[in-house]
Structures are given as C-alpha cells and as structure tokens.
Write a structure and sequence with these properties.
The complex is a heterodimer of chains A (about 240) and B (about 300). Helices cover about 80% and strands about 0% of the residues of chain A. Chain A is built from 10 helices and no strands. Chain B has a 6-stranded mixed β-sheet, sandwiched between helices. Classes of the chains: A mainly alpha (about 240), B alpha/beta (about 300). At the A-B interface, α1 and α4 of A face α2 and α3 of B.
Chain lengths: ~240, ~300
C-alpha cells in the first residue's frame, strides 16, 4: 500500500517541478538581488552566506507547499466517491491515512534533499552541521504534513486546506525575512524567531549551523511538541472520513 | 439467505431514503434492483456495504451482522461503485494490485489474480497502460475488475453501465451471466430495464424507499396478466390529452413518448369509445397492442417511466 502511494506521489511531475525547480530559481534570484545588501535578515552568524540563508528559508517555505501533495491525495481518496470504494475494503481507514502521510513525508524529504543538494553543489550554499540540519528539516516536514492533514480533516474540504496552507506559506517566509529585510527591532526579532512553526525551524537550523545547541532546542522542542499534538489529534479526526 | 435486510430505515435530515425496506437474496442469485432516481437504490447499497449507518432495522450478509466494522464480512463482498473509482495516473495493473492488496492478498497470489481478472475484464493487453488513457468503457471494466481481485462471493454492482458504449455494456452483461454460472452471487442495480431483464434471476422493484414488487421476470409480468397495452400514434401529441386519458376510469396508466400514447387498460374492458374522441382531433396515425413487459410492470407499479427518470 505504501509503495502504491509513493509511486502515485512520484507521478505528480508538475508538483515536483514546482516544489524543486521553483525554490532553486527563487534562491538564485534573491541571492542576485541581495548579494550586495548587508541587511538581509537571518544572518546572525557571519559565516553564513546569503545563499545559505536563502537555501534554508526557501527549503522550509516549500516544505509548507509540499504538504499539499499529501492532503490533496487524502482529499482525492476520502472526499470523493473513492471514499466508498476504500471504506468498503477491510483495510482500516487510519492505516490508509498513515500510508499517505508517511509517503508524503518521504516525498517532501526527497524534494528537500534535491533543493538543498542543488543549492550546495551548484549555487555554493554551505550547510554546516548537516545531520542536525536534516533532523530539523525532517521535523519541519512532518509538522507541515500533519498541519495540512488536520486542516483537511477539520474542514472536510481540500480547497480550505489549500487556501489555509497557501496563506501560511505566503506569510511565514515574510516574517523570517527572506523576501526583504525586516526592521531591526526587538519586536521583529521576536516575530522572526517565534511567530510561526517555520520560524522555529529556521531558528533551529541557523542555531545548528552556528553550533548553538540551546537555539536548536528552542526551535525543535516546540516544533516536536506541536507535531505530537497534531499527530494525537489525527486519531479522533480520522473518524470524520466515515460517511 | 445470503442477504437478509429487515425493515431498514435510513433518513437524510427530513428525507426518508429507506422506509422499512426489506429484501432477501439467495446464494447464487443475480438479484436485479430496479427503481427510478431517488428510489433509494444507492442508499440501500451503501447501507448493505456498511458505508452508511441505518436508523432502524437490521442487515445480515452471510449470516453476519453488517455494522460497517466487520473486516471478515468486507472480505466476502466486492463493491462496484456507481462512479468510476480508479486511479487514472496509475496503470491498470497497479490499480488491480492496490485494491487486491487492500483486501489482504499478497504475492504470488495477488499477481496471479491480477492476471486472471485482467483476462475476465478484457484488459490483459492493456495492463501496463495508465487508466487515464482508457476509453469510458475500459475504465468501467477496470472499475469492475478492481472489485473482483479478491474473489468475492457477493458482488454488488451499483449502476455499472452508466455512460458507456453498447459494446462495453454487452461485455459487462456477459460477464455478469458468466460470473453467475461460476457461482458468484450478484446484486445488480440499474435504471435500464432491459439490462435487469437480461441478467437478473429475480427482480426487486423499489420506489420512494419501499420495495413495491419482487419476483422473477415471469412472475412480475404475469402479475399484469389480464391487462392490455395499447399504443396509439398521433400526428401532434398534447400533454393535456395525456392527463385527460389518465383521468378515465378504465385506463390504469398512460405514458407519452414523442407522438405515441401508451395506455394500460384492464383486460376485457372496451375503452375505444372513451379514448377515440380525445385522440381523434390529434390525428390518429396507427393503433397497436402489445404484450406487457417489465417496463409495463414498472409503469403500472410506480406510475413512472424509468427512462424518463433517467433523462
């Protein structure tokens, strides 16, 4: 079953192009624009180049959109007539949901690897403490996959989940300052570091690259806690897929 | 009994979709469930498969209570949905293997069943093509195939031929006959009377959530014995004349197709003196009589033309 969902996800060629090629283009584009600027947010560590900060920021941003692959698959399976076909089988719907969720997470992780790999190999991004950074990336992927799933199950509509996640995906990167520099004030620093789950992940990654364990924990612990809560919420919410 | 449904009530808010509906089905039977749109056929099918809870009543299948949570029971049933529910981005082989897997089949049995089923549905040469590239008829056949991989004892087919070409329809009807000969029990719902006539060994007619008649084709038609059917072609038909004909005491049912009035009248009753004055002004072209068929049974029982309901 999991292999089937993996193959199904992998056949969404347009989705993969958007989620891999677009961030790479944006990373190159914003690097070109801000290369000479000293104001870009997120560079607390002088060893981080613009391209590195942009790579982290856009990889995290497109993980949010990567969640769409999962909840759109769930929507196609459980909020269309396919639901009747699937629920008529002896397979527990929760197991199907988990298969979709885990394969969506895997595909999003592969997209993350592709974007970061390209950025490191071609654009010159330097990701230090790579294993810890990838750990944070995985946590961020899991959180955003779960968030999209929960919104879908709560609303019962793919369109609502898409709108909510697109809005979040548009706003969150602004507040970590990857589109344009944010004012250098305490309030904006707070928003940049804590406002969104994406900000927490960004903070943890930058902390990991700077070798600051406490920063990593400040980002990862709340993100892991939220992920756990969302995962626990899935069980009661999965009952909503019954007609 | 293979299926025993007793006094099933299913409501959608204020609408009663199944109203003390009862039905029985024996092993090895092809039971045709016939009814117009909104009769409650699909609601009953979904309740029978365990997808919809019911307010009252009880359904047992293979002697097991259908509560929607019995995996053992689900393994015995194949459900062909009214809509085409296949994954168009995947190949026919992947679709068949996926649904077989959901029913617990594992390789090498699963592979063997996929091959067997692809032969049954006539898609053996198309197994590795994406379902999205198939014609409507091929998709319908794959839709049926996905319900057969686990070799169900009971196959429930909800309007399996909607929107397909005559060739694919004949293929599906032939499959139903073959499957019955091989011992499969099939519950077949359709709008199309001729399909039910062709495949069903017993027929249940339902309307407004009730079962209004049941029996073999012969039994249902013989229930109309004594009734006669008259077809009168006119140059220009008028709806108000149909209503006037229906109001006549000796006319049981009237239907109007294009320029032909179809009347069902009790045997031995002479009605021409009553109907001709109404029809003559419309210009009578021809008058014919014919033996009653299932469509006439349906018309008499429900007062509706099944085909009109479709359109």
């Amino acid at each position: 079953m999991a292999l089937f969902y993996f193959k199904r996800s992998m056949r969404d060629v347009v989705g993969h192009i958007i989620l891999i090629v677009l961030p790479v283009i944006l990373i190159g584009f914003f690097d070109y624009i801000y290369r000479s600027s000293e104001l870009i947010s997120g560079i607390q560590d002088p060893e981080n180049t613009f391209i590195t900060v942009l790579t982290i920021g856009f990889t995290l941003t497109f993980q949010i959109y990567g969640g769409a692959l999962t909840f759109e698959t769930m929507g196609a399976d459980f909020f269309t007539p396919m639901q009747g076909r699937l629920l008529a089988t002896p397979m527990a719907p929760r197991r199907i949901l988990l298969a979709i969720l885990s394969m969506g997470t895997l595909v999003s992780f592969l997209q993350t690897l592709a974007v970061m790999g390209f950025s490191m190999a071609v654009l010159g991004a330097k990701i230090r403490a790579f294993p810890v950074v990838m750990l944070v990336m995985v946590l961020s992927i899991v959180f955003h996959q779960l968030l999209g799933t929960v919104i879908l199950l709560l609303s019962g509509k793919v369109k609502t989940a898409t709108t909510a996640m697109s809005f979040y995906g548009a706003i969150a990167p602004i507040f970590i300052g990857i589109y344009f520099p944010l004012p250098d004030t305490a309030v904006f620093h707070f928003l940049r570091d804590y406002l969104t789950p994406m900000a927490l992940a960004n903070r943890a990654v930058l902390g990991a690259m700077a070798g600051e364990g406490q920063e990593v924990l400040r980002g990862m612990v709340p993100l892991a806690t939220f992920s756990m809560l969302l995962f626990m919420w899935l069980k009661p919410l999965s009952r909503r897929i019954h007609p | 009994m293979l299926i025993q449904a007793d006094n099933v009530i299913k409501k959608y808010k204020n609408h009663v979709a199944l109203d003390y509906f009862s039905l029985t089905m024996k092993e090895g039977e092809v039971l045709g469930l016939l009814g117009p749109n909104g009769a409650g056929k699909s609601t009953f099918i979904k309740t029978l498969v365990g997808l919809l809870p019911m307010e009252e009543g009880e359904i047992t299948v293979f002697g097991m209570l259908q509560d929607g949570n019995n995996p053992e029971l689900k393994r015995q049933i194949g459900y062909v949905t009214q809509e085409i529910t296949i994954y168009e981005e995947m190949t026919a082989r992947e679709n068949l293997a996926f649904f077989g897997g959901l029913y617990g089949l594992k390789n090498p049995l699963l592979k063997a069943r996929v091959e067997e089923v692809s032969e049954i549905i006539g898609l053996k040469d198309q197994l590795d093509k994406k379902a999205g590239s198939f014609s409507g008829g091929m998709k319908r056949r794959l839709n049926i195939g996905c319900s057969l991989v686990h070799k169900p004892k009971l196959l429930i087919m909800d309007e399996p031929t909607v929107g397909i070409d005559p060739q694919s329809r004949n293929y599906i009807l032939s499959f139903v006959k073959r499957a019955q000969q091989e011992g499969m029990s099939i519950l077949y719902t359709s709008h199309y009377i001729e399909e039910v006539e062709a495949v069903a060994s017993r027929i249940v007619i339902m309307d407004q959530g009730h079962s209004i008649a049941e029996g073999t084709l012969r039994e249902l038609i013989s229930s109309l014995q004594g009734d006669a059917q008259i077809l009168i072609d006119v140059r220009i038909a008028k709806e108000e004349v149909k209503e006037a004909l229906a109001a006549l005491r000796d006319v049981k049912e009237v239907a109007l197709h294009n320029n032909t009035y179809q009347l069902i009248i009790p045997g031995g009753v002479v009605v021409f003196d009553q109907i001709l004055p109404l029809l003559s002004p419309l210009g009578i072209v021809a008058i014919n009589s014919k033996q009653p068929n299932l469509e006439d049974v349906f018309l008499t029982l429900t007062g509706k033309q099944l085909r009109d309901e479709v359109n």
